[in-house]
TrEMBL record:
It catalyses: Couples ATP hydrolysis with the unwinding of duplex DNA by translocating in the 3'-5' direction; ATP + H2O = ADP + phosphate + H(+). The gene is priA. Belongs to the helicase family. PriA subfamily. Its cofactor is Zn(2+). This is Replication restart protein PriA. Initiates the restart of stalled replication forks, which reloads the replicative helicase on sites other than the origin of replication. Recognizes and binds to abandoned replication forks and remodels them to uncover a helicase loading site. Promotes assembly of the primosome at these replication forks. Zn(2+) 1 binds at C546, C549, C586, C589. GO terms for cellular component: primosome complex.
Length: 841
C-alpha cells in the first residue's frame, strides 16, 4: 500500500491536491498531493493514508480536493485510498467544523472521537477470495498484479489490506483491489464480527473443602510451603477475593487470564488444578440480545390516551413553525409512548430518526420496548460496545439498514444522510456533556445543530428540563408541550422528610437510618413491595481518619483523600484510579484507632444487612456494574422481584420503570444542595425528582423519604410540592442576579502544569491578558479548584462570562484563543497546558 518515497517529485504537471483532516490537536490545514493513478478515486469524505511527521502513518479524511499546492512547503503524496464509498458525508463534515469552532478545538480532535477507531486502523481491513466466485468458470483478463494477488490468496485465503503492497511489490494497490472487487473475485471485509456471540469466560475457584475450616486452609498452605509458585497463585487469589472473610466470593471465582496474564506460572496453575486444589469452571457472559430476551416485555402494543394523543398533536403543530420542541412530561406520563408514535410518523415519511439517551446501560428497558415496536430496523449505539460493533452500526446507518438509531451522545456522529427527527430523552442529563478529551461538546445542543444541518426537527424530553431549555421554551425560542399527569391512575408519590438532626437528638437513628426511613422500609417489605435507596456516593466511606492524630490517607497524585472500599479492603482514588490496601494502623502515629468518616453506598448496604438480615439487598453503582451487562442482570433481577432493596448512586434514578417499588429513600441530600456549583440546586431538584419518580408508578401511591438536617430549605419545598415552575422561577431569578446561564455563556479555562507555582503564575498572567481584551468584569478568578491536583497536574481555573445578546460570541472566542496563544508563546509557559471548556456543565 505504500509509496516507497512519499517525497518524490510529482511526475505530472497537472497534479491535484487534497486538504485532509488528521486526528491530531494541531490547528493547521494539511495539504497532500494525489498520485496520478489514484486521482480518479479520491473524493471528499474518503479515507486516505498519509504520512505524518517522520514515521507515523495516519488515516485521514479528505475534506477538500484542490488545484493548488500548499504555499510554504513541498506536499507529500497521499499513500493510498481506503474507501470505495465515502466514510463521512458532507453534512458530517459540516457538523465537525461547527463543533470545532464552537468548542474551540480542532476538526481533527472532533474526527478523533467521531469515528470509531475501527475505521481509523487500516490493519483491520482484510482482503479475501470471494467464496461465491469460481474463477475457473469465468474468463477473466488479469493483469500480472491481479494474477499475482489471486494466486497468493488461493494459498492463504485472507490477508490484511496493508500487506498487499508488500506481496505485490508495488506502491499503491488500490486499483488492483478495486478492479478485482468490481469483478467480484475478492471481497474486502473488516475483521472480527463477534457481536452477538455469547462470550465464555474461563474461571477458577478454590475447592469448597478448603474453606470449610481454618485448619483446612492452614494445611493447604503447609502443603504448598515449598512450592513457591503455587503458593504465589494462591496468595494472588486470596488477595483478589477475600474469600476467608466472605466465602460467597469463592462462587464468583477469578478469571483464569487474571492469573495467566499476571505473570504467574501457567504450569503451576495447571498443577493446582490437577491436584484438585483449584477447580475450573466457565461462565457465559451474555450479550445484549440475550439480555433483551431475559427482560420480560409482552407484546408491546398500546394506544395513546387522550392526553398523550393531544400532546402528539401539539408537537406536530409546533413543528410546522418551529424546529425545536420541549416535551415537559412528569415521570410516568408516557413520554416514551409519545416518542414512539412520533418516530413511526417520521419513518413512514422515509426519513431517519435518532433517539438519544443519556446512557444506554440505564435505558435498557426502553431499548427493549423500541425493539418490540421497530424490530431489526433499530440500530443501537452503545458506549460499552466493542469497536467492531460500533463499526457495524456505523456501516448499517450508511447503508440504510438502520433508519432508526438509539444511542448515547456519540451517536450524533453517525453517517446520517436524511435525518428527519432527533429526540433527546432526559435532555437535562449532564452525561450529554463530554468532559475529556476535546471536543467538550454538549450532545443536546449539538443535536439542535445537527438537526438544522438536515432541516430536521428536534424534540427534547424531560420530567425536569434543564433551566436553559425551559427558559428557551418560555421565551418562545422553542415550542413547549407539557404532560402533567401520570399514565393510568398512577399518582406522583408523597414526599416525607426525615429530620435527622431531630432524630439524632432523640437518639432514634440507627447508624445512618432514621426511624422514619427504617420503619418505612419494613412496612414496604411486609407488603411484599420493593424499595430503592439513593446515596450518590460510591465506596464505603469517603475517607479514613485516625482518632488519635487526625491523619487521613490521601492520594499521592491528586489532592483528595482516598475512598475506603470495604469489599476489597482497599483505599482508592476516584480521580486517578490509584489503589492500595487499607492500613490497619495509622501510618503517622501507629494508633489502631483508624475509623471511617462519611457514607457511601457500600456502607448503606453493610448497615442494612445488619439491620435487616433476611432481606435480599443489591447495590448498583460503578463498582458493581463494571462488567458489560451486569447492570442489566441487576435490573432484571429487581424486576423479577429477586431483590427486595436496590441501593445505588444516580444510576438508580434514571429511566427505570418498575411495578412494585413503593418506597424510595434518599440519603445525604444536604451535601448535594451545598455542593459549590451554580447548578447544585438544579441538579438536586432533578436528581430527587427523578429518583422519586421510580416510586408508585402503578395504581398504588408511592412514598419518598428524604433524610435531611433541614427540611425547610426552599429547594426541598419545591421538591415536596412537585413544583417545577416555582423551582424554575426562583432559579432563573438567581441566575439573572449572578449572571449565570442562560443569561451568560461561560468559557472555563483550566491552566494545568506539573508545578503549582508555574500553574499559578501562568493563570495569573492569562487573567491579566484576558481582562485587558475581554473586559475586567467578565473574567473571574483565577482560583484553585476544590481538587487542585489530579494525576500530578496542578490546576487553576479562570471563568469567562459572556452576556447573551451583548457580546459577539465568535469574536470573544477568537480573542480568548489569541490570549491563550500569546501565553503559550512565552518561553516560561511552554510546559503549561490550557483546557478550554465552553458551556461547562
Ligand atoms: P416516562 O418516560 O414519561 O417516565 P413511560 O413512557 O415510561 O413514562 O410510561 C410509564 C408507564 O406507563 C410505562 O410502564 C408505560 O408502558 C405505561 N404507559 C404509558 N403510556 C401508555 C399507553 N398509552 N398505553 C399503555 N401503557 C402506557
Ligand atoms: Zn494517628
Ligand atoms: Zn489520585
Amino acid at each position: 500500500m505504500l509509496l516507497k518515497d512519499p517525497n518524490q517529485v510529482p511526475e505530472s504537471r497537472t497534479i491535484k491536491y487534497v486538504d485532509v483532516i488528521i486526528p491530531v490537536p494541531i490547528p493547521k490545514r494539511y495539504r497532500y498531493a494525489i498520485p496520478k493513478e489514484l486521482e480518479p478515486y479520491v473524493h471528499i469524505g474518503f479515507r486516505v493514508v498519509v504520512q505524518f511527521g517522520e514515521r507515523r502513518l495516519l488515516t485521514a479524511i479528505v475534506a477538500e480536493v484542490l488545484e493548488n499546492p500548499p504555499e510554504h512547503y513541498q506536499a507529500k503524496y497521499i499513500l493510498d485510498v481506503l474507501d470505495f464509498e465515502p466514510t463521512v458525508n458532507a453534512t458530517q463534515l459540516q457538523l465537525w467544523k461547527w463543533i470545532a469552532d464552537y468548542y474551540m478545538c480542532t476538526v481533527g480532535e472532533v474526527m478523533n472521537i467521531a469515528i470509531p477507531s475501527g475505521l481509523k486502523l487500516t490493519s483491520t481491513s482484510k482482503v479475501q477470495l470471494n467464496p461465491e466466485f469460481n474463477y475457473f468458470e469465468h474468463e477473466m483478463e488479469l493483469n500480472p498484479h491481479e494474477d499475482k494477488l489471486l494466486n497468493h490468496l488461493r494459498g492463504v485465503n485472507a490477508v490484511p489490506y496493508d500487506q498487499v503492497s508488500e506481496i505485490l511489490g508495488i506502491k499503491s494497490v488500490y486499483q488492483v483491489i478495486k478492479s478485482l472487487i468490481k469483478r467480484r473475485a475478492i471481497i474486502l471485509f473488516e475483521e472480527v464480527k463477534e457481536k452477538y456471540k455469547p462470550k465464555k469466560i474461563k474461571k477458577i475457584r478454590l475447592r469448597d473443602a478448603y474453606l470449610e475450616s481454618e485448619q483446612a486452609m492452614e494445611e493447604l498452605f503447609a502443603s504448598l510451603s515449598k512450592k513457591t509458585k503455587q503458593e504465589e497463585i494462591l496468595l494472588k487469589y486470596l488477595s483478589e477475593l477475600p474469600v476467608l472473610s466472605r466465602p460467597e466470593l469463592n462462587r464468583e471465582g477469578l478469571e483464569k487470564t487474571e492469573i495467566t496474564h499476571g505473570g504467574f506460572s501457567t504450569s503451576s496453575l495447571n498443577t493446582l488444578l490437577k491436584n484438585q486444589i483449584f477447580e475450573e469452571f466457565e461462565v457465559v457472559q451474555s450479550r445484549l440480545d440475550e439480555m433483551e430476551e431475559s427482560v420480560t416485555v409482552e407484546a408491546y402494543d398500546f394506544t395513546l390516551n387522550d392526553i398523550q394523543a393531544g400532546a402528539l398533536d401539539d408537537i406536530l403543530e409546533i413543528f410546522k413553525e418551529r424546529d425545536v420542541c420541549l416535551l415537559h412530561g412528569i415521570t410516568g406520563s408516557g413520554k416514551t409512548e409519545v416518542y414512539i408514535e412520533l418516530v413511526k410518523k417520521v419513518l413512514a415519511n422515509g426519513s431517519q430518526v435518532l433517539l438519544m439517551v443519556p446512557e444506554i446501560v440505564l435505558t435498557a428497558q426502553m431499548v427493549v420496548r423500541l425493539r418490540k415496536v421497530f424490530g431489526e430496523s433499530v440500530g443501537i449505539y452503545h458506549s460499552k460496545f466493542s469497536d467492531n460493533e460500533r463499526v457495524e452500526v456505523w456501516k448499517g446507518v450508511a447503508e440504510g439498514k438502520f433508519p432508526f438509531v438509539v444511542g448515547v451522545r456519540s451517536s450524533l456522529f453517525l453517517p446520517f444522510d436524511n435525518l428527519g427527527l432527533v429526540i433527546v430523552d432526559e435532555e437535562h442529563e449532564s452525561s450529554y456533556k463530554q468532559y475529556d478529551p476535546a471536543p467538550r461538546y454538549h450532545a443536546r445542543d449539538m443535536a439542535v445543530v445537527l438537526a438544522k444541518l438536515h432541516h430536521a426537527k428536534v424534540l427534547l424530553g424531560s420530567a425536569t428540563p434543564s433551566v436553559e431549555s425551559y427558559y428557551l421554551a418560555k421565551t418562545q425560542k422553542y415550542g413547549l408541550v407539557e404532560l402533567k399527569q401520570r399514565y393510568g391512575n398512577a399518582q406522583l408519590p408523597a414526599i416525607h422528610f426525615a429530620d435527622i438532626r431531630k432524630e439524632r437528638k432523640r437518639k432514634t437513628m440507627k447508624s445512618e437510618f432514621s426511624s422514619l426511613l427504617l420503619d418505612g422500609i419494613k412496612e414496604s417489605l411486609n407488603l411484599n413491595e420493593q424499595v430503592i435507596l439513593f446515596q450518590n456516593r460510591r465506596g464505603y466511606a469517603p475517607f479514613l481518619t485516625c482518632e488519635e492524630c487526625a491523619w487521613t490517607p490521601k492520594c499521592n497524585q491528586c489532592s483528595v483523600s482516598l475512598t475506603y472500599h470495604m469489599y476489597r479492603n482497599e483505599l482508592r482514588c476516584h480521580y486517578c484510579g490509584y489503589r492500595e490496601p487499607a492500613p490497619k494502623h495509622c501510618i503517622a502515629c501507629g494508633s489502631s484507632k483508624v475509623k471511617t468518616v462519611g457514607v457511601g453506598t457500600e456502607k448503606i448496604e453493610e448497615e442494612l444487612k445488619v439491620l435487616l438480615p433476611e432481606t435480599r439487598i443489591q447495590r448498583m453503582d460503578l463498582d458493581t456494574t463494571k462488567r458489560k451487562y451486569s447492570y442489566q442482570k441487576i435490573i432484571s433481577d429487581f424486576e423479577n422481584q429477586q431483590i427486595d432493596i436496590l441501593i445505588g448512586t444516580q444510576m438508580v434514578s434514571k429511566g427505570l420503570d418498575f411495578d412494585h417499588v413503593s418506597l424510595v429513600g434518599v440519603f445525604d441530600v444536604d451535601r448535594m444542595i451545598h455542593f459549590p456549583d451554580f447548578r447544585s440546586h438544579e441538579r438536586t431538584f432533578q436528581l430527587i425528582t427523578q429518583v422519586s419518580g421510580r416510586a408508585g408508578r402503578r395504581e398504588k401511591l408511592g412514598k419518598v423519604i428524604i433524610q435531611t438536617a433541614n427540611p425547610n430549605q426552599l429547594i426541598l419545598q419545591h421538591v415536596f410540592n412537585h413544583d417545577y415552575w416555582s423551582f424554575f422561577k426562583r432559579e432563573v431569578w438567581e441566575r439573572k442576579q449572578y449572571l449565570y446561564p442562560p443569561f451568560t455563556r461561560i468559557v472555563k479555562l483550566s491552566v494545568k502544569s506539573e508545578s503549582r507555582e508555574l500553574t499559578d503564575h501562568a493563570a495569573e498572567q492569562l487573567a491579566v491578558y484576558l481582562r485587558g481584551r475581554i473586559g475586567q468584569k467578565r473574567v473571574l478568578g483565577p482560583e484553585f479548584p476544590v481538587i487542585d491536583k489530579i494525576r500530578n497536574q496542578y490546576l487553576k481555573d479562570l471563568i469567562v462570562k459572556l452576556e447573551r445578546g451583548k457580546v459577539d460570541l465568535v469574536k470573544a472566542k477568537t480573542l480568548i484563543a489569541e490570549q491563550i496563544e500569546r501565553l503559550r508563546q512565552q518561553k516560561g509557559f511552554r510546559k503549561v497546558y490550557i483546557v478550554v471548556d465552553v458551556d461547562p456543565a
